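#struct-help
A.M.: can someone run this one for me? Single chain, 307 residues.
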Amino acid sequence: MNSVRHVGKTLLLMSLCLFLSGAHVIGMFSVIALPTAEAQSGKPEDLYYKSWAIIIGIENYVLAPPIPGAITDAKKVAEAFRRLGFDEVVEFYDKDASSRRLHQLLNDMLPRKVGRMDRLVIFYVGHAGFMQDSDGQERGYLVPFDAQINNAAKSITVEHLKEFTRRSASKHTLLILDAPVFGWETTAPAELSLEGRMAPESDTDRRAVQVISAAGKGEAAVRVEKSSRFVETLLIGLSGDADLDGNGWLMASELGDYLVRQVKAASNGAQRPSSLRIDGDGDTALIEGRRSAFTLGADPQTPSEQQ
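D.P.: on it. Structure tokens below:
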């Protein structure tokens, strides 16, 4: 009888161990399956819970001419965003920027990981092409590592990018493209209050999707001695030179205006960047200054302004 009880206890213990082991495995898979973007409620202490910079640089294409110096430029931009205090700087170079990887990045990875109170910047240096959509409108596309310039089959089109920004939960998204990419629909900028604004919440609390492209239709993103003129100007702007009103805050709209003017002047009008807001009416903060110094517009001075 004792031996029967002993066998019964042994079987019970084995069953319990198997159950707990299975529960542990299920728990592990549950943790892995959870999206990285944690539930974000309320306001963060700063403007964002987390800041993401996705850096894509393609130099040695499989089916397209190489772009000497593209990876070096991209690494400089990655370092600039690290200096700005971005929490996650993720880099994709050459074969890591294949069509499959970039589509996976936009369709799966970023929508799962980026939260609703986060800031997301995507920088791209590489080839671009253009195609006509079903309405006959010309739209640009990014060329992945293993794609052809004149074939959009594996490309990342403007429509892909717009769909991604609609799906992304991020409060602010900024695309910086060192390539001639065009064909965006834009959102009119919000009107400034005559009273000015003494805190950034009015702009930074509202959603914004912004795009800065290095060149327009029919233009080239000029490279001088294996270095991009656009990237050189971008790095100077991110260091604080693009803070046009000198209030210590660097906004994406300011950076865009700075790049448009500086690159156009340096190229004698041959390369004309564009700076657009394609969704929302907010503005991405790239450098946060003191809130008391944040002002947009001055008090009305003349009787007509007061009226």
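A.M.: thanks! Residues 1-7, 15-35, 188-200, 294-301 have pLDDT under 50 and may be disordered.
D.P.: also worth noting: Residues 51-293 form a domain with the Rossmann fold fold (CATH 3.40.50.1460).
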